[in-house]
């Protein structure tokens, strides 16, 4: 509902998948099926619906237009979202229509056509994440740690859109733009990715063991799975950031402003809070490279 603006009321009288399938099946079976970032949504959603209604899924293959243009200045499958790919190829993209099914399908088709014509993207000057792109387009207020308490004291309603610029404590100094929660947002706790519990760093000396950890924001993982994973590693989840908390894990959207203010307040008291920011940091923490975030 948060992303696609489809409510139960909007779909209450829509035809069931079984009826729709009779219409679309001939088209899909005779065509190549493409989507942008297909592996995260289109492929699994179609598979689940087909199985629910007893249809065969062996034939199903959704090609991913995201794979057509890998971005050299970003990790694999990063920085090449649908709006960023369009901008790199000079394809007009209206962010206000993003996630409308027909609009996204049209833009995906335009990307494929550009690829078939041999067109090459120009990534220069483009942000490296959709969050940064939204920041540029919506002209949200951008705040750094140290500015949140003062800002929210002056804007108690919290209705203005705000971004936070955060760096993790991995020593790299790399900053990431994250989207702070406001009253227009809706929480979404279920991510599309799955934590590999078999790979968790469960050594007795892993850096999370015995530490009190707060979590804020959204990730590609289900929030409950993250909580379960850090508990398996020996961490103690706490609801807020106080003098007892040592670590805060920060997602890329719906980040709680009160937790950002609490980080500021604790650091003003010389109580350092270790920060893990975004999915890449979280993966490092979970799968054995967590020590880089913690100084003596």
The percentage of residues in β strands lies in: 5-15%
As a whole number of angstroms, the C-alpha radius of gyration is 21 Å
What is the number of beta strands?
9
What is the helical fraction, as a range of percent? 25-40%
State the end-to-end CA separation: 44 Å
Strand count, sense and barrel status of the largest sheet are: 4 strands, parallel
Task: Compute the average pLDDT.
Answer: 87
What order do the strands of the largest sheet run in, or round the barrel if closed? 7-6-8-9
Q: Could you state the oligomeric state of the chains shown?
A: single chain
By DSSP (H or I, 4+ residues per run), the number of helices equals 10
Q: What class do helices, strands and sheet pairing give?
A: alpha/beta
Shape: globular
Q: How do the SSEs run, as a string of H and E?
A: HHEHEHHHEHEEEHEEHEH
How many domain regions? Answer: 2
Describe what you observe in this structure.
With 296 residues, the protein is α/β, with parallel strands linked by helices. The protein is 33% helix and 12% strand. The strands form three sheets. A four-stranded parallel β-sheet has the order 7-6-8-9, with helices on one face. It has a three-stranded mixed β-sheet with strand order 3-4-5. Strands 1-2 form a two-stranded parallel sheet. The longest helix is centred in the middle third of the chain and has 16 residues, at 101-116. It is globular and about 65 Å long.
């Amino acid at each position: 509902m948060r992303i696609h603006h489809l409510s139960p009321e909007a779909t209450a009288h829509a035809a069931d998948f079984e009826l729709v399938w009779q219409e679309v099946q001939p088209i899909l079976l005779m065509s190549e099926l493409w989507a942008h970032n297909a592996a995260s949504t289109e492929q699994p959603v179609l598979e689940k619906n087909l199985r629910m209604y007893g249809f065969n899924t062996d034939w199903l293959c959704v090609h991913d237009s995201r794979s057509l243009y890998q971005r050299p200045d970003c990790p694999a499958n990063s920085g090449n979202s649908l709006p960023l790919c369009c901008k790199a190829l000079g394809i007009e993209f209206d962010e206000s229509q993003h996630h409308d099914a027909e609009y996204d399908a049209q833009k995906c088709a335009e990307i494929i056509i550009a690829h078939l014509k041999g067109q090459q993207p120009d990534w220069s000057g483009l942000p490296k994440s959709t969050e940064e792109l939204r920041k540029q387009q919506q002209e949200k207020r951008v705040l750094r740690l140290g500015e949140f308490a003062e800002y929210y004291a002056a804007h108690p309603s919290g209705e203005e859109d705000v971004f936070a610029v955060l760096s993790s404590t991995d020593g790299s100094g790399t900053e990431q733009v994250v989207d702070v929660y406001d009253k227009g947002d809706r929480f979404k706790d279920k991510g599309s990715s799955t934590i590999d519990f078999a790979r968790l760093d469960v050594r007795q000396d892993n850096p999370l063991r015995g530490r009190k950890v707060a979590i804020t924001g959204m990730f590609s993982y289900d929030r409950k799975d993250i909580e379960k994973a850090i508990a398996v590693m020996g961490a103690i989840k706490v609801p807020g950031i106080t003098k007892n908390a040592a670590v805060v894990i920060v997602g890329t959207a719906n980040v709680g402003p009160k937790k950002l203010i609490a980080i500021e307040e604790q650091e003003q008291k010389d109580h350092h809070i270790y920060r893990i920011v975004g999915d890449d940091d979280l993966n490092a923490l979970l799968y054995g490279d967590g020590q880089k975030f913690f100084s003596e």
